[in-house]
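wait is this the right file?? whatever heres the structure
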């Protein structure tokens, strides 16, 4: 039964998350709340790992959730659940490509999907920023506690440093983004081990 549920949840995600891997994040946050397979913190870790490993982030996360939930068979089922809608849609489009390409209603629908996928990616980006830069768990506290503890200062400092190094400092602007990802991972690990 758990395999069927894994397939179903990721099939829905793959069907409606138009716009790529980051567009799956709102669906994954909802899945975390609904199923309890992983937490929002686990999702933030999955995003970090998924962004720094080869392959599409959505598929990496589906594989990871499936593996954590049910081992290797769960990883296969979740991954198949995520990619099956795309395969079905591509097969349907390929069979009627000529008429599909010239249909003005289909063209208008794809034009509308651009806005939807942009909104999904923006929502995912805001969720990632809030999860990384803020300590939202302090919000039920008093105003003083919230103001003192809501900001994750080491993460904010790291984000500002990466922004400045990648955009403003002349000799580091030309470095490959993987350099900044690797350095951020090392600094994040140091902060974690230092208890920050």
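ok assuming it is, sequence goes like this
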């Amino acid at each position: 039964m758990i395999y069927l549920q894994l397939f179903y949840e990721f099939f829905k995600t793959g069907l409606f998350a138009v716009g790529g891997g980051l567009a799956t994040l709102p669906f994954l946050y909802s899945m975390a709340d609904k199923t309890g397979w992983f937490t929002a913190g686990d999702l933030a870790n999955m995003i970090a790992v998924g962004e720094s490993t080869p392959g599409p982030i959505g598929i990496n996360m589906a594989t990871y959730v499936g593996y954590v939930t049910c081992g290797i068979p769960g990883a296969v089922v979740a991954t198949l659940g995520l990619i099956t809608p795309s395969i079905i849609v591509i097969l349907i489009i390929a069979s009627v490509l000529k008429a599909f390409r010239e249909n003005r209603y289909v063209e208008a629908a794809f034009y509308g999907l651009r806005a939807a996928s942009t909104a999904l990616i923006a929502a995912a980006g805001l969720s990632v920023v809030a999860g990384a830069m803020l300590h939202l768990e302090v919000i039920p506290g008093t105003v003083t506690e919230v103001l003192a503890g809501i900001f994750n200062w080491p993460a904010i400092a790291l984000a500002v440093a990466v922004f400045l190094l990648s955009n403003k400092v002349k000799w580091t602007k030309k470095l490959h983004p993987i350099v900044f990802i690797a350095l951020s991972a090392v600094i994040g690990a140091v902060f974690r081990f230092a208890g920050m």
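The two ends are 41 Å apart (CA to CA). so i think its the right one actually
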